Amino acid sequence: MEDEFAALYLEHQLCFPLYAVSRFTTKIYAPYLEELGVTYPQYLVLLVLWQYGEQSVKDIGQRLYLESNTLTPLLKRLTQKGLVKRERAQADERTVLVSLTEQGQGLREKASLIPQRILGSFQSGAISEGELLAFQKTLHKLLGVLEEKVVGEV
Questions:
Q1: pLDDT band at 34 (very low <50, low <70, confident <90, very high)
Q2: Nearest Cα residue to 16 out of 28, 7, 3, 5
Q3: What is the SS3 assignment for 65?
Q4: Are 32 and 120 in contact (CB under 8 A)?
Q5: What is the pLDDT of residue 153?
Q6: Cα torsion 75, 78, 79, 80: sign
Q7: Are 81 and 74 spatial neighbours (Cβ–Cβ below 8 Å)?
Q8: Which of 49, 70, 138, 144 is deepest in the core (most CB within 10 A)?
């Protein structure tokens, strides 16, 4: 006899393994980020700035899927740490531009070791690098689908 509520079983939920994997992965990052003196969300902001250079708060939020009310205190803490600076754009004072300080730019080299360390921490033989890269590709595809759906509904 089939359970009419089987669709509600935890193991049948797409969101649960994504949530759990995200939490565990963030924990694996923690000691490496501690060496940099940043949290995971702060690290994500630094990744954006290292890749794209000066960005508006709005652009950073779009790239990281973060709302302004989440991003603003995060940027404030990065500013207090001396890693970024925030300035109003001369062309439009409503726009706040965020850029790396010399200290923030200096963390880039130390941070460049993190991706390989993370990848190495997953290689217990249970999952290959190829499987991880394929999973990452699938996640990016899923993110694109979900972004289109969510943005389309707003």
A1: very high
A2: 7
A3: coil
A4: no
A5: 66
A6: positive
A7: no
A8: 49
- Least confident span in 31-35, 81-85, 119-123: 119-123
CA dist., res. 150 & res. 71, Å (int):
20
pTM for the model: 0.89
Contact 98, 86 (CB under 8 A): yes
- 9 vs 1, 14, 17, 23, CA distance in Å? 16, 11, 12, 20
Q: Give exposure, 132-146, as e/b (b: 16+ Cβ within 10 Å).
A: eeeeeeeeeeeeeee
CB 127 within 8 A of CB 107: no
What span, in angstroms and rounded, lies between the C-alpha atoms of 55 and 32?
A: 25
- With beta carbons less than 8 A apart as the criterion, state whether 86 and 75 touch: yes
Residue 152 vs residues 14, 49, 145, 147: alpha-carbon distances, Å = 21, 27, 10, 8
Query: Under 8 Å CB-to-CB from 106, ≥6 apart: which residues?
Result: none
How many angstroms separate the CA atoms of 60 and 52, rounded?
10
